[in-house]
Task: structure prediction
Amino acid sequence: MLRWRQATVTQRIAETDSATTLVLDVPGWTTHRAGQHVDLRLTAPDGYQATRSYSVASAPARPLAITVQRVDDGEVSPFLADVARPGTAVEVRGPVGGWFVWEPNTTDRVVLLAGGSGIVPLASMLRHRRRLGDPTPFHLVYSARTPDRILYRDELAATTEGEHVVITLTGDDIPPDWDGETGRVDAQTLRRHLPAPSGGLTYVCGPTAFVEAAAASLAVLGYGPTTIRTERFG
Amino acid sequence: MSVTAGFGGRRGDDDERLPPGQYRVDDFPVLTAGPTPLVETDSWALTVRDDQVERTWSWDEFTALEVESVTTDIHCVTHWSKFDTQWAGVSVATLLDEAGVRDDAPYAQVYCYGGYTTNLPVEDLVDRVALVAHTFDGDPLEVEHGGPARLLVPHLYLWKSAKWIRGIRLVDHDQPGFWESAGYHNHGDPWLEQRYAGD
Ligand SMILES: Cc1cc2nc3c(=O)[nH]c(=O)nc-3n(C[C@H](O)[C@H](O)[C@H](O)COP(=O)(O)OP(=O)(O)OC[C@H]3O[C@@H](n4cnc5c(N)ncnc54)[C@H](O)[C@@H]3O)c2cc1C
Result:
């Protein structure tokens, strides 16, 4: 049974102007698999509670970390992104989800497609790969609105052997010095950056519209539906 | 339970309609394990069977069956609930009747285009509101919400309301479906907060 556990924020890392990573200390927490999420619960002084799901950002066996993108009119994410500090008490339960996970040595090749904060569980997979020195080839295409919205930018750029990382900007104001991709993820973008669809697993995560568009583009390229796993953030 | 310092929260006024741990949304989020399968209505078919009989409807035959409309709240295990959603479709009881399947089978397996499966007790399909829905808010059900047709069992978490339904099979022995094999609860009653196995 997945019970609620007390958790304390131990560290707060500002990733961007609108996204924050919280490292949590959770007594009794065992570990998670790369790609899983937790349910997180906040309790107001009068007992009112609000619960949301957040993907685990950290690699398995590392301290539990989540990265929260602020949704401006949201109930929970502004608190987590702006207010929570070391010492803040929350509750978590999990890890949850046995499907949207990557385990080393289970597949020949991994393709990761991220839209916005959909990068979070995929970053956990990449971190897991790097920590273990796993040789499975990884191809990541990450779509973000503007450069200041890119999560884990330096870390993603520090590729190790077998990793291919492409970031595409979808916003209107592309800075003149941007040398990455631009435009939404479509079949053309993916054809330029992904290997031919033979073997391997593909993980797609982000807002619904992104996941629908990315999965449809993968189909155009001939990626089989049974090799694609998706996670939609709302 | 421990208080989260600095958290006020935003309270709705419909709390008694919200199962524990849920919050209200006005849009309609999507949760699916894989890509959205595209099923054309001219190749679509729905099959209801048990170990003796089997009945298949084409899209035209299915949409000619008696239509039932419901307005209901729906609850997703990812914590959102949406109030007063309007659906129309064919009641599962009608389909079982028309198919002539036995009335003493305890469990149903639901299978879908795209390979998704779910399981539930037959009584959740016949004693409560349960539809194979083809219409949402007066319009044909959109593909990302399960069109052309999905199961709708609003008193259980929405993963039981299988999208892109292709068939229902009545069986003697319960067999966990897709999410039920991946750590989610076998029954999924939101009022008992049956989210995960063991809840
Ligand atoms: C399995 C899973 C994993 C998730 N992982 C993460 C994660 O790693 N990081 C993260 O930041 N979020 C993640 N989310 C989203 C998260 O659970 C919340 O939905 C999000 O933080 C917004 O909550 P809120 O209370 O601030 O907004 P709410 O009060 O719930 O919503 C306020 C308004 O914003 C809209 N809205 C809700 N969610 C979003 C969204 N994601 N994008 C745009 N608009 C939205 C609502 O429709 C509403 O209009 C995940 C969701 C799921 C289901």
